[in-house]
Recover the amino acids of this structure.
């Protein structure tokens, strides 16, 4: 035993030494272990963002069954991503984006919680459980999406292109819910990330000025876009004029701005004028108005998604609005988004309910 | 009051009394990962073969690669069962071109069965989509559902018990829908906002509405130019079990062929019989229950240039669905009579340039103008020869490229 133990330590050290090595871009085959990418790794006690890799967050994030998310971006060389006011930034080949989904834990249960401060760019595994890390890798032919699932020991995550189902017990106060957490398969990644249904090119969703334009949680005192310009992640553009989505929880900003930010990040990857859901005629980008936004708009092919309601948004009447029904239901045939959640987002539903309640006008 | 397309139906009640042998939930998920991996790894030119057997899935499948064929061993032999589905809005979602799927079945999906979006050169052949518990409001919406596609062949498919449409093609161009069978759906076959469709050799029976040619507002393009011919459209009398709020929920039970807000539609050489509301309905959006909802300004709500000729009609119109239509029948035909073969809501485009709404060259077939604009006040059978006209015949659809050989 005494002989083996130091040897084991040595081997582990060697391994973690390897893990902490430079971030690496794989242009073709994807490594089986997440650690081989060198973006995020665990040292046994913490999830660590590697040196040279930049964590970031969004003004309003997508809801994913109350999972918290640690996002990172890494660029391979001196070339920066190009800045754009409305479209997704254009990243150079070799760029790698990661998003790690995790929950605060108590015993075996997951908790509804808020992200911890990550100013030291690490996450204690005593208090959190890692579920999956999704990668978007910018290769010569475009972005590739890769799902990695964390092992029970929380030492590494492995590629599982067909996705998975994890049984999770979620605790909020006295309420305990067991639900199937779905890791999407590689093709399903495109269901959200192919934001233009004509080109079908996979794109990052959060990498837009309006989602990123906020105070940085990781470099306190800096605006995130300014910080990215300073650190060479994006080329200097007209960043000071960048649009800014609201933080959906920030009650100091108007309700309409919060609701539209929420619908934008949760829906507009499909519900945009060229998205997969343009078949419905419903557009939930920040610029949409009137029937395009759903006001008094009848459904096209919603099936059970109508919930027996007649229009997407009935001003003043959230319970007559299909939009709200589709957020509240967890029936796979009816719920929106179609993928990425098994639970209803109570707080998000509350926000949109309030927004529709205060909307003026009537249909017909 | 003029909204006579409103179906009076008890949503949530199974529509028909026949006993249906609902299948047990299959439990063999061994094949799920195999097929998912094949779909992820697919390369153009690949043929993915589905072995014989009932294969269970609890998550939806998707394919994003052009040029792939998925082929089973027969629609009763290679069955993809989604009875235990917990995630995904459809069984199989395809967002790719040059795609062929044939000889398999997709059963009991939570949402749509087979959805194909944003692709060209699509062949769907001998595919069965079915909800095995029979017609129920809780069934998925669409059986086979190509949308925003071009150059599409749908043939010899079978679609059963969809809570919206069994075979639906939407927002597409250059389409042939032939020799399919659609039964016990709300809409058997539905052509929506589609330009250039030939619909022939199909059987549409026991649906709420047999064959629908619709235009909906708020979409990028309206549809036109559909030919519905040589079909058998009979006994589409199943109680409407669609979800309230969906366009098809306003279809009265007993509708044979329904044209709504669509232009240049030809209906000929069909056998249409025993559809108890009417064998043919021609209507505007004003007669649908979504009439007062928002529509874009340039939406054309009026059906125009609908040509009905040389069909064989029999029975039907004897027991229309809903109080308003019952009252209409009583007023026009008396308690023992029947509504004429063609029921028209009577809305005419004021800016239509004098084009006919409906031309009929079909021996003894009458058109009832329901006078929707005046609340059915002056409803009556047109006997002034207004429908005695002809229209230039539409050209046949020619599929192009590799699909030309399939003609």
């Amino acid at each position: 035993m005494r002989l083996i133990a130091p040897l084991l330590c040595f081997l582990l050290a060697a391994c973690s030494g390897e893990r902490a090595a430079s971030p690496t871009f794989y242009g073709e085959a994807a490594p089986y272990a997440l650690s081989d990418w060198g973006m995020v790794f665990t040292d046994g006690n913490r999830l660590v963002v590697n040196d040279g890799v930049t964590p970031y967050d969004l003004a309003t994030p997508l809801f994913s069954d109350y999972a918290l998310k640690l996002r990172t971006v890494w660029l391979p060389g001196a070339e920066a991503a190009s800045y754009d006011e409305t479209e997704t930034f254009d990243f150079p080949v070799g760029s790698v984006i990661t998003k790690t989904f995790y929950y605060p834990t108590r015993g075996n249960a997951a908790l509804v919680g808020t992200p911890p401060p990550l100013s030291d760019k690490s996450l204690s595994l005593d208090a959190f459980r890692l579920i999956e890390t999704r990668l978007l890798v910018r290769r010569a032919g475009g972005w590739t999406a890769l799902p990695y699932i964390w092992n029970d020991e929380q030492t590494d995550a492995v590629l599982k292109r067909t996705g998975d189902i994890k049984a999770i017990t979620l605790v909020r106060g006295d309420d305990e819910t067991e639900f199937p957490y779905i890791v999407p398969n590689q093709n399903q990644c495109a269901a959200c990330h192919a934001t233009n249904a004509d080109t079908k090119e996979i794109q990052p969703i959060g990498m837009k000025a309006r989602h990123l334009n906020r105070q940085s949680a990781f470099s306190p005192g800096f605006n995130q876009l300014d910080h990215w310009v300073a650190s060479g992640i994006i080329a200097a553009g007209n960043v000071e004029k960048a649009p800014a989505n609201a933080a959906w929880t920030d009650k100091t900003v108007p309700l309409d701005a919060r609701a539209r930010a929420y619908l934008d990040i949760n829906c507009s990857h499909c519900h945009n004028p060229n998205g997969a859901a343009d078949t419905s005629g419903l557009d939930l980008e920040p610029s949409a108005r009137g029937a395009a936004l759903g006001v008094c708009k009848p459904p096209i092919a919603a099936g059970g998604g109508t919930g027996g309601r007649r229009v997407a948004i009935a001003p003043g009447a959230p319970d007559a609005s299909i939009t709200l029904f589709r957020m509240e239901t967890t029936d796979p045939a009816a719920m929106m988004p179609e993928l990425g959640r098994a639970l209803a987002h109570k707080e998000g539903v509350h926000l949109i309910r309030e927004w529709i309640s205060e909307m003026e006008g009537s249909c017909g | 009051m003029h909204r006579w397309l409103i179906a009076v139906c008890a949503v949530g009640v199974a529509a028909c009394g026949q006993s249906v042998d609902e299948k047990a939930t299959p439990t063999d998920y061994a094949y799920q990962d195999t097929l998912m991996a094949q779909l992820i790894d697919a390369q153009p030119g690949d043929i993915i073969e589905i072995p014989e057997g009932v294969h269970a899935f609890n998550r939806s499948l998707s394919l994003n690669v052009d040029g792939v064929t998925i082929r089973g061993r027969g629609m009763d032999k290679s069955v993809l069962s989604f009875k235990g589905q917990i995630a995904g809005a459809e069984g199989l979602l395809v967002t790719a071109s040059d795609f062929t799927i044939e000889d398999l079945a997709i059963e009991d999906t939570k949402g749509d069965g087979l959805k194909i979006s944003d692709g060209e050169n699509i062949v769907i052949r001998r595919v069965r989509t079915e909800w095995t518990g029979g017609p129920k409001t809780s069934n998925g919406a669409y059986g086979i559902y190509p949308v925003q596609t071009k150059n599409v062949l749908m043939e010899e498919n079978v679609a059963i018990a969809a809570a919206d449409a069994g075979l639906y093609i939407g927002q597409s161009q250059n389409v042939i829908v032939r020799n399919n069978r659609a039964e016990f759906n709300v809409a058997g076959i539905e052509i929506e906002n589609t330009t250039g469709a030939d619909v022939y050799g199909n059987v549409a029976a026991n649906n709420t509405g047999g064959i629908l040619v619709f235009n909906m507002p708020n979409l990028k393009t309206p549809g036109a130019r559909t030919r519905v011919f040589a079909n058998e459209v009979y006994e589409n009398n199943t109680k409407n079990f669609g979800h309230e709020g969906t366009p098809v929920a306003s279809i009265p039970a007993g509708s044979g062929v329904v044209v709504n807000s669509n232009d240049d539609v030809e209906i000929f050489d069909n056998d249409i019989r025993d559809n108890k509301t009417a064998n043919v309905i021609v209507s505007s959006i004003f007669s649908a229950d979504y009439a007062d909802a928002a529509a874009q300004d340039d939406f054309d709500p009026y059906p125009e240039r609908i040509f009905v000729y040389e069909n064989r009609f029999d029975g039907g119109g004897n027991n229309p669905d809903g109080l308003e239509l019952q009252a209409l029948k009583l007023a026009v035909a008396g308690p023992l009579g029947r509504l004429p073969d063609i029921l028209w809501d009577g809305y005419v485009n004021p800016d239509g340039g004098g084009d006919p709404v409906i031309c009929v060259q079909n021996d003894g077939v009458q058109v009832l103008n329901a006078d929707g604009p005046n609340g059915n006040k002056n409803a009556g059978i047109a006997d002034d020869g207004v429908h005695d006209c002809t229209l230039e015949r539409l050209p046949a659809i020619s599929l192009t490229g590799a699909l030309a050989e399939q003609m």
Confidence is low (pLDDT under 50) at residues 6-20 of chain B. Residues 108 and 263 of chain B are 35 Å apart (CA to CA). Chain B has one domain: 113-402.
